[in-house]
Amino acid sequence: MNGVSYQPVRSDEEVTTGAPLAARILAKIDLDDGDILVVPQKVVSKAEGRCVRLDGVTPSARAVDLARTVGKPPELVEVILAESRRVVRAAPGVLIVETSHGFVCANGGVDRSNVKEGWVCLLPEEPDRSAQQLRQHLESATGVRIGVVVSDTFGRPWRLGQQDVAVGASGVLSLLDLRGTLDRLGRRLEVSELAIADGIAAGAGLLMGKREGVIAVRARGLSEFMGDGSVRDLLRPAKDDLFR
Amino acid sequence: MNGVSYQPVRSDEEVTTGAPLAARILAKIDLDDGDILVVPQKVVSKAEGRCVRLDGVTPSARAVDLARTVGKPPELVEVILAESRRVVRAAPGVLIVETSHGFVCANGGVDRSNVKEGWVCLLPEEPDRSAQQLRQHLESATGVRIGVVVSDTFGRPWRLGQQDVAVGASGVLSLLDLRGTLDRLGRRLEVSELAIADGIAAGAGLLMGKREGVIAVRARGLSEFMGDGSVRDLLRPAKDDLFR
User: Fold this and answer.
1) Judging by beta carbons within 10 Å of its beta carbon (0-12, 13-18, 19+), is residue B89 exposed, middle or buried?
2) Of B48, B15, B1, B23, whose CA–CA distance to B219 is shortest?
3) Contact at 8 Å (CB) between A108 and A167?
């Protein structure tokens, strides 16, 4: 593989529902065959209208209870529970759930930064589909073949700090299976599967300052990782997970 | 931030103990002020002679016992235990420990790929120091100011696939604290600390094929993340960890 480059795509206009995201991206940057475009979840969710006004939410008894444990507003906890299929950990200041998509993350991906006061932003309903639709728009406008990754910023156990991971992918190999590949000395590899889409999201994430209005990052030089992938490939089944 | 680029540094010669790594890197690539060089742990460990011949290892009773549980050779388990301060999870095929450095990872970072038959390769004794020494050699040879990250490929809970993370850093801000920073709409950010060194390692990891003889990756365009960091900044204290 030769070099890889990441280029940020900035826009000062606020993304709103129905905003023609593909057109806005293409107004700012060109795309070539093999490019992979990383788009932050917040941008996709806003374009899809996945925002909720907290004062229109009536918390259930369960949400009120859990809100007390974690020290978060009951309306917010209600929205998080509605996005979740199970609570993984609840402690003061911490609410880690498994979302309906299968992501294990803090607050079910629901967050309040860069969202209007009193509102919260949810993950896209089907982030793979969001990636696929954006990819189709971009490909039909340009005639080139690209990949799209939708990213979000998650914490992780064991290590401090958050990092961008893929929550949606289209046209990108999410997971590269190396089992059976031999190393330089002709032996079987111990590293067996590489989380490609997460690596691309993490690399792009370094260019997404939280204030700078980056609506996408173009990764160039990773065309060997194009293929039919889904973020579902990256989800460890709960029954195989020793930490859930 | 403008664009970021990653360039692989390849070498076909096998890295051996005492190999002048800095000179080999500089024979292949130029360095500018602000570049960050990512070097795989395996390359650093081999240069430091951190390899062990398994048939010279006598497994303790505890290692023999644990080897039975996890289905790995007792000699290998003995080496892993010697690198560890505690076992986090043991199950058939899986041995996750906390290393003496504080990393939680499979097999204590001990691995057999790209190592001579019958030998295993350990993590550097003090990977931050390894990064610092390599940085000093590179800086004094070139007169430029750079950062160095030592990376390794770790699995993670909840998600499938492995990803490169930082195990050593020098001249790089490992963790960027955003607490108190305001978002575009003037509100406090929910994402509070970014794992910068891990993001750089992950981005570079996409260029480190497991067979291709990549001895380093040069990241350019990330100079805003230079600073005094240590991988210790990235280690979540066990008492604050809900998953250990």
Assistant:
1) middle
2) B1
3) no
- Are residues A120 and A52 in contact, defined by beta-carbon separation less than 8 angstroms? yes
Q: How far is CA B187 from CA A58, A230, B18, B35, in A?
A: 24, 33, 52, 33
pLDDT tens across B31-67, in order?
A: 999 999 999 999 999 999 999 999 999 999 999 999 9
Identity of the amino acid at B19: A
What's the burial of B28, exposed, middle or buried (CB within 10 Å: 0-12/13-18/19+)?
middle
The whole-angstrom distance between A4's CA and the closest CA on chain B is: 5
Q: Which residues contact B91 (CB under 8 A, 6 or more apart)?
A: A242, B69, B70
Q: Write the single-letter amino acid at B51.
A: C
Q: Which of B42, B72, B162 to mutate to test the interface with A (most CBs of A within 10 A)?
A: B162
ipTM: 0.94
Tokens 């826009």: give the residue: A11
Single-letter amino acid, residue A175:
L
pLDDT tens, B80-92?
999 999 999 999 9
Sort B55 into a burial class: Cβ within 10 Å, 0-12 / 13-18 / 19+: exposed
pLDDT at residue B183, as a whole number: 67
Q: Report H helices in chain B.
A: 21-26, 41-47, 61-70, 74-82, 127-142, 196-205
User: Which residues does chain B have within 8 Å of residue A200's beta carbon, measured at their own beta carbons?
Assistant: 206
How many Å apart are CA A223 and CA A127, to the nearest integer? 21
| A32-81 pLDDT tens trace | 999 999 999 999 999 999 999 999 999 999 999 999 999 999 999 999 99
* Burial of B82: CB neighbours in 10 Å, binned 0-12, 13-18, 19+: middle
Q: A190 at the B interface (CB within 8 A)?
A: yes
Is some CB atom of chain A closer than 8 A to the CB atom of B5? yes
A242 closest CB neighbour out of B94, B112, B234: B94
Residue B209 has which token pair? 């094929």
Bridge pairing between strands B36-40 and B147-154 = parallel
